[in-house]
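If I may wish for something, please walk me through the protein I am sending here so I can picture the backbone:
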Amino acid sequence: MRIPSITALVLAFLPFAVGGCATATEPLAPLADPPRLLGRWVGSWGGTMTHPMEMEVEKQRGAEVTGTVTYTTHGRTTYGMAGIIGARQDGTVWLSMGAMSAEFRLKVLSDRRLEGTGQSPSHVGPVILTRE
């Protein structure tokens, strides 16, 4: 009788462990007239610890946005950001963006306020940004 190695056991159960942690992100539908998000947004990325966060949307071409995201965790760090604006099935408008290894899903509440969640390998929590 052969006893499987620990590595073999881990590899056998890894898809179940990862699948159980995955969350389905509702795809965003295209918008004919997406809101303009150009400019500087400031706020926080919360959770167990709250970090100051800034987002600068430098370019917007239709529903596609690019710029930078800056947050302070163990020092102030700025990353390039790219995202897409779209609608969920319920009609709400969202910005889905990535910056380095972090992903953000932000609901467009008004032309001055975004709220949602952010997730990175080391931090998960609510995000609130207001336009300056």
Summary: The first strand starts at residue 39 and ends at 45. The chain is about 10% helix and 55% strand.
